[in-house]
Amino acid sequence: MSDFYKEYLSESEDDTEKIGAEFAKELKKGDFVAFFGNLGSGKTAFVRGVASVLCKGAHVSSPTYAIVNEYIGNIDIFHFDMYRITDDDSLYSVGFYDYQDRNGIIFTEWSENIEFALPENRYDVTFVKTGETGRKIMVQKKQ
User: Fold this and answer.
1) From CA 128, how far away is CA 143, in angstroms rounded?
2) Which long-range contacts (CB under 8 A, 24 or more apart) does 53-56 make?
3) Can you give the residue range of the structural domain that contains 99?
4) C-alpha closest to that of 4 among 136, 107, 124, 135
């Protein structure tokens, strides 16, 4: 069931950041945001936009090699890359479940790899490339 759905069109990385900044106004402590989309589709730019509102001054980068990046602010952000995570043991080993108790907002890239661990109450954000720099971004609240 969904009571929140928005669709955005982005023509550039800057547009994607602005969309993320707008979406930040919907978020509160404890929220979970699951990203779906191909490599280079704008997920990190979207988080950069959210962080510009919630964690001013944070230097946002892809968590590909770190697995998780933390950004501290009015509401902390925990930005995970689940590309190499495929089972519950791997989630435990990176401390994923501990982050859920820290009352920040969790963003997961490559969420399709951990569908078994996604909470029912979350936002799903899907990124679809529509051109070299164009993106369609669909945000849905799951309950």
Assistant:
1) 23
2) 53/21, 53/24, 53/25, 54/24, 54/27, 54/105
3) 5-142
4) 124
Q: Are 137 and 46 in contact (CB under 8 A)?
A: yes
Per-residue pLDDT of the chain (143 residues; tens, 9 = 90+): 456 789 999 999 999 999 999 999 999 999 999 999 877 677 899 999 999 999 988 988 887 878 999 999 999 999 999 988 989 999 999 899 999 889 999 999 999 999 999 999 999 999 998 988 889 999 999 88
Structure tokens at 51: 């962080």
- The number of distinct structural domains making up the chain is 1
Q: Domain of 30: which CATH number?
A: 3.40.50.300
Cβ contact 1:140 at 8 Å = no
Contacts of residue 89, Cβ cutoff 8 Å, sequence gap at least 6: none
Q: Report residue 16 as tokens.
A: 């994607």
